[in-house]
Every structure is written in C-alpha cells, then in structure tokens.
Amino acid sequence: MLSGLLFVAGVVAAIGCIVLLPGKRRAAGVALSGVPLVVGLAYGLLNRHDPAALPIGLLLGSLGGFDALAIGVLRGDKRHGTGLHRLRPADVCVALVYVAIVAATYATSADALRDEQGEPLFIISEPFSLVATALVFVCVILSSDAFDKGHTRVCVWWSALLVPLGFMLVLPMGLDPLLPPAGLFIGGACAVFALLVGLLPSTGSTETNIRNLRKAHVLAFLSYLGIIAVGVVYVIIWRQLTR
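Above: the chain sequence. Below: its structure as tokens.
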C-alpha cells in the first residue's frame, strides 16, 4: 500500500516538473524532478529485506527524475520547436547527478540485480536496456508534444530517434541473428506509436490534432511501417532458411 502511494507521489511530481519547467517557476520544476529519486530511495529502505530493492529504487528514481527533467527542458512552445533556448547550467548539473547515481548503482550493485540463478532481473539489470527505455519514453512524449504544437520537423526527428533506440533495447541480449529485426520492429513500432499519440486531442480539447498533419508525418509513418515490414520479412526468411 505504502509503496503504491510512493509511486503515485513520484508520478505526480514528475508531471509537475514537466509542467513547471517551461514556465516562470523553473526552480520548483527542477526541485520536483528530485522527488522520484527520493521515492525510489524510500522504496528501497522500506523493502530493505530485499537486497535488490534499494538499487532498483535508485535506478528507477534517478531515471524517472532524468526523464521528467529532460522532457520539461526540451519541450517546445508555439514559437520554438524545442526548449533548448531555455537550457541552463543548473539543468545540466542536475541531469549529470542522476546519470552519476545510475552509474554508481550499476558499479556497486551488479550482483543484487540478478536472481538466485545469476540471471538478470528483467530489463533493469542491463544499463543499455534501461537507459534506452528511459530515452524511448522521452522521445515519444517530445514527438507527440511537437505534433500537438505543429512543429512538423521536430516531431519527425524525435520519432526517428526511436528506431536506433529499438536496437539499444535488444543489444544486451547477445548476437542472435534475429535480434536486428527485433530491434527494427520495436523501434519502428515505437515511432508509429509516437505519431499516433500526436493525433490525440490536446488537454482540454475534444478535437484531434489532424489539422497539424503534414506530408512529412505521412511519409515518416509509412517509412516506419516499412521498417516493421522489413523486420518481419527478415524473420520469416531466416526461419525458412534455417529449417
């Protein structure tokens, strides 16, 4: 029960961070990005009987804070496609703190992130996969946000980054010949999802964002569907050849 309440508090704080960072209450937004980390630490201490609880809490809390900070800083407005013009040294320093915590956690708790048979605990135990998952979330939100604001080029660029991130997700799984098409499929599917989310109505509106749809969006959408198709065809051909 308490762990659930902590999770809700972390999510609410992350949303508050994203909302406040582009505005005048920037300092409050940066401070709120630290709440997920505090929540992760509290989760680890509450479940200290489990040796994996604290490192998992620190990893998810740090990456949650990093995601909220990155989305809040990089969100564009009606005039700018991205929020890079708002970037401050303090934002970079706080982001580096989260990255350092993640690196230190992996360096000191590698054994705790494996089960009794020595197998990795889901996606959490592999740095590449965890970081890729966090970046996928950032790119999906920023792409749909750019779609919502009518920034076509920025929207397509953010969605295009999801394709290589699909490879990062499967990279730790080894050198299996079927992993490249799996990465293509995951990356393409995430990119398609980001564009479809951009079509959803804005907050407080009942109309879709179809008015912001441009030829570039359609071409990108078809390209991602083509990437997914290439991955599927690759798997089919490979299985036929290896029978």
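The CA atoms of residues 39 and 87 lie 26 Å apart.
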